[in-house]
Amino acid sequence: MVSKNHKKILTKRAYFIPVLGIFSGIFISLVYLNNFRNFKTNQNFNSFTIRNLSQKETNDNTVTLVAVGDVMLGRKVNQQSISKNNFKWAFEKTADFLGSADITLINLEGTLIANCPTTQTGFYFCGDTRHIEGLKFAGVDIANLANNHAYNFGAKGIEETIKLLKDNNISPLGVSGTVYKDINGARFAFLGYNDITLHEPIISWADNKSIESEVKQAARKSDILVVTFHWGIEYSDKPSLRQIELAHLAIDSGADLIIGHHPHWIQTTENYKDKLIVYSLGNFIFDQMWSQKTREGLIGKFVFEDQKITNYELIPILIEDFGQPRLSEDK
Q1: Which helix (H) or strand (E) element contains residue 136?
Q2: Model pTM?
């Protein structure tokens, strides 16, 4: 038989247990929320920053890298170039600037193949092989193919594009390991990875273990290592957690500069362990005239000296006429 006093103790415990559970839940929630806030704060996101290169004098050891975002030479860009019989047209207002750098890097969004179908719509991107004239005119040195449109026309399409680039002294990136460039006594290394859609043949996939191993190896063999990623969420002006994870992994493994593309919008930058991450340069040559943000992009100009970035500038561009960018300051 249970005594009255024992019943009172049981009753108190019955009330105490749920109350303890409530306070425990509140405590755990507050700790989680605080950690989440700290995580968000520690990302140190900025809107894009323009640095004035004239603030620092350069010398003979200076190397300048210029990089742009998505260069899509298909659809309306291709159609207009053919109708004008001018495959330099898309680059005419920016070629002088791009060609002034020691190294010029683009993300080539699609393939350049013989018998490319002429169309103004669709999501399989290819351009006439004569667009190689525009790439050479703009002084392109490296064309990244690690993206979700380089395999639109299968192995034949990407292999034809790789050969065309190599035959014209443009290094394809993201398809055959590390690209090295020796400039002014410094060895630059470049790696490109795709993190969008499926893991397709030939194209370097953004697998964490592979990135860590390949970045470490390239860092040991170079003075400066630049890693490009095709990643993120389309039409978003901030990076996803996956972008942050990959960027930090690459820098932790030895990368000096991270350059991103794919979202079609400009995204924020981050300074992580004194290394620069440009999450998305936005579009550069594209026919997405249906919104202001898809017409806007950035040219990244990065100055290296003594094996590190000493200055950089992010220069706004505006796309006109379904595929021809100009510097935003030009009228």
Answers
A1: helix 132-137
A2: 0.84
Give the tens place of pLDDT for each residue, 204-240: 999 999 999 999 999 999 999 999 999 999 999 999 9
Residue 263: predicted pLDDT: 98
Radius of gyration of the chain (CA): 25
What does the pLDDT average to over 42-66?
57
Distance CA 213, CA 58 (A): 34
8 Å CB contact between 196 and 146: no
Q: Which residue has the tokens 């323009």?
A: 50
Strand spans (E) along the chain: 45-46, 63-71, 103-108, 111-112, 126-127, 142-144, 171-173, 179-183, 186-194, 224-230, 257-261, 269-272, 275-278, 283-285, 296-305, 308-320, 324-327
Instruction: Encode 213-252: b = buried (16+ Cβ within 10 Å), e = exposed.
Output: ebbebbbeebbbbbbbbbbbbeeebbbbeebbebbbbbbe
| Pick from 175, 184, 307, 265: nearest CA to 228 | 175
What is the SS3 assignment for 38?
helix
Which CATH superfamily is 49-327 part of?
A: Metallo-dependent phosphatases (3.60.21.10)
Handedness of CA 89, 93, 99, 104 (dihedral sign): negative
List the one residue out of 71, 120, 89 whose CA is nearest residue 324: 89
Beta strands 103-108; 296-305: pairing state:
unpaired
